[in-house]
Amino acid sequence: HDLHVTRKLLDRIRPDFEERTWKMFARFVLDGLTADEVATELGTSPNAVYIAKSRVLARLREEAGGLLG
Questions:
Q1: Between the CA of residue 39 and those of 2, 4, 17, 50, 65, what are the distances in Å?
Q2: Relative to the CA of 4, which of 26, 52, 66, 67 has its CA 20 to 30 Å away?
Q3: What CA–CA distance (Å, rounded) separates 65 from 36?
Q4: Residue 28, SS3 per DSSP
Q5: In angstroms, rounded to a whole number, what is the distance separating the alpha carbons of residues 15 and 63?
Q6: What is the pLDDT of residues 7-63, one digit of tens each?
Q7: How far apart are CA 42 and CA 45, in angstroms?
Q8: Other CB atoms closer than 10 Å to residue 35's CB: what's the count?
Q9: What is the pLDDT of residue 67?
Q10: Across residues 63-67, what is the average pLDDT?
Q11: Residue 58: per-residue pLDDT
């Protein structure tokens, strides 16, 4: 159930992010690549990948409003 709710919430917040930010998040968190792999693939730094993850997860928690966890 939590996975279904999480996927729905991710779909809802997706438009709030630039394509590049979302791609970093998706490749790192959803696809399971390392930050180094994502950074190399997208021509950025691992730190930028961690920042993208943080921003998306913060927005996800905000959208969830206590529904998860």
A1: 29, 28, 18, 10, 31
A2: 52
A3: 31
A4: helix
A5: 13
A6: 999 999 999 999 999 999 999 999 999 999 999 999 999 999 999 999 999 999 998
A7: 9
A8: 19
A9: 64
A10: 78
A11: 95
1: its two tokens:
């159930």
**29, 39, 49 from 68: Cα distances, Å:** 17, 29, 24
Amino acid identity of residue 58, one-letter, is A
Residue 68: predicted pLDDT:
54
Alpha-carbon gap, residue 24 to 15, rounded angstroms: 15
Predicted structure pTM score: 0.88
d(C-alpha 24, C-alpha 35), whole Å? 9
Q: What is the DSSP letter of 34?
A: -
